[in-house]
Specification:
The chain is α/β, with parallel strands linked by helices. The chain contains six helices and four strands, in the order H-E-H-E-H-H-E-H-H-E. The strands form two sheets. Strands 1-2 form a two-stranded parallel ribbon. The chain has a two-stranded parallel sheet with strand order 3-4. It starts with a helix and ends in a 5-residue tail after the last strand. Mean pLDDT is 84; it is low at 120-125.
């Protein structure tokens, strides 16, 4: 949960479906700590059972204006944003976040439903396509103790993707 509109909406959708809520945010070396403050406020207002902030440092890899000393572009046109991968792309960020979510879900004993804030975006590589989510589900069910023991049939819900 980033604390933005998309993740707050996904959390509210899960709440409306009467799931017990656990929220995971990341302090990954991003420039804007305001995201984590917003995530904590959203988690508290919706009433999650637990909100964790995982500290990982993606600055070690570099390559992004969100985690390095690269200027964040401002004032781009829609046309400019529609072409190429932006300098704000953080290499493999969503894949890493999903792996952490999978680990915590396994510890919590969640064997069926994981909600992920994902939507289609202009930069395809910065947004995970449905094929990636399906492949990650398959991998998750092969790579966890619960999956190997046949107790897990994890489904990743992405209500904003389409």
């Amino acid at each position: 949960m980033s604390g933005g509109l998309d993740s707050a909406t996904v959390l509210a959708i899960a709440r409306s479906q009467e799931y017990e809520l656990y929220a995971l945010s990341f302090s990954y070396g991003q420039r804007h700590i305001v995201e984590l403050e917003a995530a904590s406020r959203v988690a508290a207002s919706i009433g999650v059972a637990s909100h964790r902030i995982a500290a990982i440092d993606l600055r070690v890899f570099g390559g992004s204006a969100l985690t390095g000393d690269i200027d964040v572009p401002k004032g781009r046109t829609t046309g400019e944003m529609a072409h190429g991968i932006p300098i704000t792309y953080v290499p493999a960020r969503n894949t890493i976040f999903l792996a952490f979510a999978l680990a915590w879900a396994e510890v919590l004993g969640i064997e069926r439903h994981l909600h992920w804030c994902e939507r289609a975006g202009l930069q395809r590589v910065s947004r995970l396509p449905p094929e990636f989510i399906e492949a990650f589900e398959k991998m998750a069910n092969l790579a966890t103790k619960a999956g190997v023991e046949g107790r897990q049939a994890l489904k990743i819900h992405t209500p904003l993707m389409r």
